[in-house]
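Weekly puzzle thread! Below is a chain. First person to post its structure in C-alpha cell form gets bragging rights.
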Amino acid sequence: MKNIGKVNAAFPTPIVVVGAMVAGKPAWFEVAWVGIGDSDVVTLSVTRNHYTCDGIRAEKKLSISLLDEALIPRADYVGIVSGRQADKSGVFAWHAGELGAPVPDDAPVCMECTLEDIYDDHGCYLLICKVAGTYVREDLLQDDGKKIDYAKFKPVLFEQQGFRYIRTGEPIGPCVAPGKEFAN
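Winning reply:
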C-alpha cells in the first residue's frame, strides 16, 4: 500500500440540496459534506457564509433532499450561485413540510429536520440535524411501504478527489449473512 497523504477517503458521500426559509421565501444550496450522527441524526459541514444558513439558524428547521440524476442541473446551480446574489426560491417547486421547512416537490427523498446544534470552527458550521420526518416518492418504497428501495432509488454521490458526481450501483447482497458465512 502507498501512503497518499492526508486525504479524507470517507468519500463519496450523498449529494443533497438543503432548503430553509429566509425572509419568507425558500432558499436552497447544495451540500456534499454529509454525515450520519445516529439513526435519526444527519450532520452537514458547510461554509458559514451560505445565505441559506441564515434561515437555518433563525428558523431552526430545514430540509435535506437526496437527489437522483434528473435533479443534478438544478442542484448544481444552487450550489454554485449564492442566494446573496440571486433569488433561487423558484428553482424547485415546493411545499411546506409538517414543520414548515421547504420540501422540493420533485425530490425523490427528503428529510425534514430540526436544527439541534451548531459547531462553529475554522470558517465552517457543523450542523447537527434531527430528522423529524422523511418524505419518499411512493414508487421508491419497498413493498411494505415503510423502507426506501435503493435498488430503485439510486442517490447521486459526490466524490471529492475527482470533484465529480457518481451513480450508485446495484445492491450486492444482505448484511450479516457474509460475516456468518465467513465465521463458519
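Puzzle host: Confirmed. Bonus trivia for everyone else. The longest strand covers residues 109-121.
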